[in-house]
Amino acid sequence: MAQVIDGKQLASQVLEDAAAEVEWLKHHFESVPGLAVVLVGDDAASQIYVRNKIKRAKEAGIASFEHYLEADTSQATLDALIQELNDDPGVHGILVQLPLPEHIDEARIISSILPEKDVDGFHPANVGALSQGRASLVPCTPQGCLIMLRHVHQDLSGKNAVIVGRSNIVGKPMAALLLQENCTVTIAHSRTRDIRKVCQEADILIAATGSPGLIQSDWIKPEATVIDVGINAIEVDGQRKLIGDVDFDGASQVAGAISPVPGGVGPMTIACLLLNTTRAAKNQLT
Fold first, then answer.
1. Is 167 known to sit in a ligand binding site?
2. 10 Å Cβ neighbour count for 52?
3. pTM above 0.85, yes or no
4. 166 annotated binding-site participant
5. What residues does the Tetrahydrofolate dehydrogenase/cyclohydrolase NAD(P)-binding domain cover (predicted)?
6. Domain ranges in the chain?
7. Are residues 148 and 10 in contact, defined by beta-carbon separation less than 8 angstroms?
């Protein structure tokens, strides 16, 4: 039976680190890190994510600035808000909750956030720095996944890592982080030939496809470490249930370690967002 990687417990440790950074900044600079969260529209899932992020921010001692905009908010209005937050010295981190309404140019908004305040790590400057192995603000979910992997493995060097999913949010930055750890990295996706066979070669398997239960036990190398990024809502006997991209029950009989859904990557993502906020504040104040 696989070791279950407790994302909630690891996240609490990361939040403690973030809270310690907040206290250090208060002591040395008499300043509290400030996180501005922007939500456009009334998407139910996004509202839940934002509430959780704000709650955790307050617990860590981070100042929270919340901006809730109507779904029909214009591009110009959102552009102006981002510029205002960029110019505000009390705001050290800016998070625009994705996805945005279709009439908003998402790439333009991401690029308009100052790189040093881009706590999501999505700005092209941060993406470029990560790809070159330079210091940057790193996307929160891959950062959380790496912390989970380091919890299981003292050394990732030389391990064969397969990432299923090639998104800009998880797949690509995850690959860059694992290359920095000296892994041999493969990104598999919907056009990969014999994807099952590719996954079977992985010492580390990271699933980030948004496809419920896609990865079955016979896709997994015995004793592999499996990180399940997927969060999918399904109906089971009339009840809403969250499951991952991995068949947890089957995979846990084969893998050496596995992250659950829920309670795995999700808490780590929020914790790393707050850690990024404290790091951004420290960089701006020192």
1. yes
2. 14
3. yes
4. yes
5. 139-284
6. 30-114, 140-266
7. yes
